[in-house]
User: What shape does this take?
Amino acid sequence: MVRAIVVRESGSAVEEVGEEFLDGDGGLVVDVRFSDLNYKDAMALTGRPGVVRKHPLVAGIDLVGTIAESDSPRFAPGDWVMLNGAGLSETEHGGYATRARISSEYAVTLPEGLSPEQAAALGTAGYTAALAVLRILSENIMPEDGPVLVTGATGGVGSTAVQLLSNAGYVVYATTGRVDELGEFLRGLGADEIIDRSTLEEAGRPLQKAIYSAVVDSVGGVTLANAIAQTKKDGVVAACGLAGSHELPSTVMPFILRGVTLAGIDSVWASLDDRADAWRILARGLDLGKLDEMTQRVTLDELHGAAEEMMAGKRHGRTLVTI
Assistant: This one.
């Protein structure tokens, strides 16, 4: 029997199901050891629409475990493997289960320098942050070009982006809705300036004072529009989330008058090469001691409570799920 969190039309719960429940064409059978809790996971577990697209479905957009069976020459039984996104918890059974059947197409081996627990704690959030930082680097934005803004900085994507950027020498401005409570936490991750998120939540002019050479945004909505309006000439804005809104109430002016680039970060279907690059930068560019300090552990039975806390804005850092 497989113990899993199954999302049904009536809601989600921890269940025991037969292994035949894990239908699909995946050629890798994985004994799952760890997963994590992302914003999309919290949405799925608390019944918000937009994540799970078929029912019933095992939740969890990430998994880390060992291979039990393999049809791929890249993997052998006993190997550690990880998968982020690639339809998990959307159209394919996800990682909140003691066993999973997955495709090898987007799976990667555990990166050298990270333990299974650390890789799982980073999960999609960490690897999305790495993809965003890599995109900024690809646009030749250097530390001397000016500060980089990270919105939603206490979340999984934001907190990892703050660390990666700071460790690479950038001046980092970080937003949070709890400056007094979490300001020191963000400074400990490497943020140079802490900004109250409310200053970006009111609609502003389409072109504002140019402050940032680049932006990593996981919020969307008015926050993203204001961030774009405050980006310097030839700057890049890496958009990778919609915790605030999926809308973008902006104009073309920053793009045609300042040459700003709005770069979408697709972590769900990123190529195998991009995934490998992202995990390499995570293994080399983070202070793993800080990652361990900001990681909380929960079990499958505790996940629903943790998800409610995340949706209420009461959980920050990373949440490791032990399967």
The two ends are 14 Å apart (CA to CA). The mean pLDDT is 95.
